[in-house]
Write a structure and sequence with these properties.
InterPro entries: Tet_transcr_reg_TetR-rel_C_sf (IPR036271). The protein has 133 residues and is mainly alpha-helical. The chain is elongated. The protein has 7 helices and no strands. It has a domain at 1-78. The chain has helices at 3-7, 36-48, 54-76, 88-91, 103-107, 109-113, 118-130.
Length: 133
């Protein structure tokens, strides 16, 4: 696996997220002491939202940030147990867990193995932004 793939999404795919940034725990530093890359990303998002009322801009910034980090962690960092396996349940390793233990997870295995890409990211982002419109 290439270093580029391990370090995060392409900037063209998620331009507001600094390359190589991966949240592994809650931030434990004050805002002004956070890395400049993080602050620049926040600044870019808030600049895009500058025409909104401050309350709405902050709410949308928080929602977008939480959504994007969740999307990146769940969709883009998903791991396949056996990438060449044609059966989705086996591909993501569900064969290691009893079918009776997690029946809903097993039933959605096909959907869980599908990766979205830029089109899906844009579609889901539009849906999020529509909630604020």
């Amino acid at each position: 696996m290439s270093q580029r793939r391990n370090s995060g999404p392409d900037p063209a795919f998620a331009p507001c997220l600094p390359r190589g940034l991966l949240a592994t725990r809650l931030l434990s530093t004050p805002l002004a002491r956070r890395p400049e890359l993080v602050l620049r990303g926040d600044e870019r998002i808030l600049a895009l939202l500058a025409d909104l009322h401050e309350h709405h801009a902050l709410a949308l910034h928080r929602a977008f940030t939480a959504w994007l980090l969740g999307y990146l962690l769940v969709e883009l960092r998903a791991m396949d147990d056996a990438p060449d396996e044609p059966d989705p349940a086996f591909r993501i390793g569900l064969h290691r867990i009893s079918a009776q233990q997690l029946p809903h997870l097993r039933a959605t295995a096909t959907g869980l193995t599908e990766r979205g890409g830029p089109e899906t990211l844009a579609e889901r982002l539009d849906a999020l932004l529509d909630r604020f419109g």
